[in-house]
Amino acid sequence: MNSSTVLGFFGGLGVVAFALLYEGDVSVYISVHAFIIVFGGGFFAVLYATPMDVFLGSWRAMLGAFKKENFDQAQLITLMSELAAVARKDGLMALEGREMPHKFVQRGLQLLIDGADEASLNSQLKDEIAGVKARHGLKQESIKAWVELGPAYGMIGTLIGLVSMMGNMSDPKLVGKGMATALLGTLYGAVVANTFFGPMAGKLKNNTAREVAYCELAIEGLRAIARADSPRAMTDKLSARLNSADRQIVQVAA
User: Fold this and answer.
1) Do residues 240 and 217 make contact, with C-beta atoms less than 8 angstroms apart?
2) How does pLDDT run across 112-163, given as a tens digit for each residue?
3) CA torsion 207→212→214→215, rounded to 10°?
4) Is 192 exposed, middle or buried (0-12, 13-18, 19+ CB in 10 A)?
5) Is the pLDDT of residue 109 over 80?
6) 74 CB-contact burial (10 Å; exposed 0-12 / middle 13-18 / buried 19+)
7) Could you state, in order of their start, the residue ranges of all structural domains in the chain?
């Protein structure tokens, strides 16, 4: 599990839950009417705004954010150095059958073994990265649509509640019900945007940036292997992308 996603998600929910419980009677914060308007309306509005495959893919992406991802660049550089040493000694075919930590690296290594030169290797893998960015971007836009539409439907709920309240001023019970819908619609919209989907969109954007940086580092390593660069020269070049702590890890491993 991805610890930061789990802690952040449930921590945020916990803070909201604590605030509700601290006030005593939680039942005053429950309105089926407001819930249906905000969550039901938002659901269909986002579905309306995005293609079905992107909409479904966005939910899978959100579930995937809770899984632990391995984008350890220091580990990747160490691996590339080992592969370069084997390739220089025994040839590229000696790399056949090796399991890589990421499917992108596996794909690149197989292209190298199959005889792709440096230029075609670089071109094909860059195209794959462009595809990853495009696919991830569409899903993230679908999630970000909730950030806009959730509060918008919360405002719709607020207006409906206010109209109901104003139309039934003679009946105190209906006035209270309308006021609850009005206030809770805004509350639910804010929770949807700022507790669920806003942070999730940011998390997935960050994950994409980390994955792209990892894949770009893999490309440079594979290109170095294609050129038959020395493992030491390749390690020194790739390590320039790392922070000082990770660079120290690579130097120790070397």
Assistant:
1) no
2) 999 889 999 999 999 999 999 999 999 999 999 999 999 999 999 888 878 8
3) 140
4) buried
5) yes
6) buried
7) 30-72+120-253
Three-state SS annotation for the chain: CCHHHHHHHHHHHHHHHHHHHHCCCHHHHCCHHHHHHHHHHHHHHHHHHCCHHHHHHHHHHHHHCCCCCCCCHHHHHHHHHHHHHHHHHHCHHHHCCCCCCCHHHHHHHHHHHCCCCHHHHHHHHHHHHHHHHHHHHHHHHHHHHHHHHHHHHHHHHHHHHHHHHHHCCCCHHHHHHHHHHHHHHHHHHHHHHHHHHHHHHHHHHHHHHHHHHHHHHHHHHHHHHHCCCCHHHHHHHHHCCCCHHHHHHHHHHC
Q: What are 210's two structure tokens?
A: 């980390």
- Phi-psi group of 99: left, alpha or beta (phi > 0 → left; psi -120 to 50 → alpha; rest → beta): beta
Q: What is the mean pLDDT of the chain?
A: 89
